[in-house]
What does this fold into?
Amino acid sequence: MSNMNGWGLTTRLISKHFSALGDKVSEAIANFDPETATEADRDRLAAALREAAQKLAAARSSFDREHGDVEKLRALIANDEKASSTLADRLAAGQIAEATVALFCDELEANKAKLPMEMRQETDAKAYMDELQKIVDAFAQQLAEFDRAAKQALQKLAAANAQKDLQELRAERQSQLASLNGLQNHSTALNALARRAETVSNQAAGMKIVADIGQKPLDQQAEIDAIRKSVNEPNVQGETTLQRLRRLSGQVAVAA
It folds into this structure.
């Protein structure tokens, strides 16, 4: 007996602690994958609704049978009551055996006695069916409310994830800009490239200075040559035809 009590205690302890462990595991899974956990919760509600609906269908069938039995019994009693006067006349006329009429009366009395019990069974079946209908309606409403709440929760989760992604992208962009500014201010390659550009620019400026110095004597000589040319050219303005001929023939005009 004590051994059985020990096993009973062990069973209860295992059931209690494993049930708590199951709740913790379910909570952990819900936090890790809320979408799947939500689907699992909905599946449980839907399963409860299906089970209740199946019981309601069975209860409706049972009520229909009980109601049919009551209606049949009532109809049978009513028909037998109508036949009673006819049987009384036939019995009085000796057209039917008394034993047959007695058996008919026994059945009629039994059916009348049975009717209240059949009606109670019908009432109980209807009450059971009505209670199951309430349960099914409650499960259906609970499932609809769950779907509505789950939809809102998933929408909020999606919006929160979108905001999180947006902030992550902003942080990444800020990090990239900071890195780019850091490269511009501290990059050895960029600094070397800037120094190289400055050096080449200085070389080009120096070469221009040298070229300008070399070009100056050439420009001065060109000016001198232009002056000389302008002085040596004969003034052909106002010469006569005879003077032009002499000039073109190479003869020098003799002064008078």
